[in-house]
Predict the 3D structure of the following.
Amino acid sequence: MRAERPRRVATKRIRVNPREPEREAIEEAAKVIRSGGLVAFPTETVYGLGADALNPDAVSRVFEAKGRPPDNPLIVHVADPEGVYLLASEVPPVAERLIREFWPGPLTLVLRRTELVPTVTSAGLDTVAVRMPDHPVPLELIRAAGTPIAAPSANRSGSPSPTTADHVMRDLEGLIEIVLDGGTTEIGVESTVLDVTVEPPEVLRPGGLPVEEVERVIGRVKVPEWARGLGHAPSRPRSPGMKYRHYAPRAKMVLVEGRPEAVRSKVEELVEEYCSRGLRVGVLATDGKRYEGAITLDLGSSSDLREVARSLFYSIRALDEMGVDVIIAEGVEERGLGLAIMNRLRKASGGEIVRA
Ligand code: TXA
Ligand code: MG
């Protein structure tokens, strides 16, 4: 971690129309980016904390503001598919097929990098992660700034990713120049990160684009156990982010996995047990279930995981705000978006997993 304390600044929150962002707001934010400052903005996945990806000092400030370990590289955002050729020295045919199919969208590709990418941005690796977001605000911001934008999720390192401008303010007010407030983000979990420098390509983080969709286009990819949120990531430098605790609420969190009926009775049992110890209990539930004695937040229908993904981080943060001591989460099926949801829940629970 860097020794310097992050510098304090006044954070300006600017409301923008997420569909047609106002010209003045974009220009003002672009000016900040060009002068090495930090701007948080919505994307289709979560809010990002952006800086000029080609300016090492600006990128260092991102690490300071987030309290992010310097060995965890950032995703570089581009405003059109061609942008990838500036940053990547090699774009294999599978990557080109994926770009044609899924950009703009929640797919990040890890590629060999060019000399243009500063060492801090890619944390000293010889690769760079690139994505083109599907959201007018970052697309116009990148165009107006005239530079690719490095942007991790706009939360303090280790805490749940932000899906509203309020979340960003809570974590980063006083540390960044501007928050562009474009309302709640649509997908709610971060992009899928796919390493296409290896054969077969390997999922480094499941996310907003289901692995099944990727496989429909390029055939089988590898999904290691640790990318599902199980076990420990190897200390290989290819997936540095995976070794850190992520998405953690202040409250203790327990994840219950298994068949729906078994999960339900296990959660009931745990709620009763924690309540009897005088603890305040919150439950992240699906399908409108209620648990007596606990504050239950409904994530949505288990048959439409888009809803669950969208409300996941929001609900974890909401239970924390309500001051619960323990959060019990119902697991979902690991299909489609379920893979990303389970990865986030497993990590947020720090390995406290109960099999029902
Ligand atoms: O949806 C998203 O991806 C959001 C929005 C803002 O675009 N961004 C985001 O960034 O989630 P961040 O920094 O929170 O997560 C980036 C992930 C980390 O796990 C990091 O380790 C990995 O991507 N990553 C970045 N560059 C990499 C590289 N060169 N090789 C391997 N993994 C990399
Ligand atoms: Mg993050």
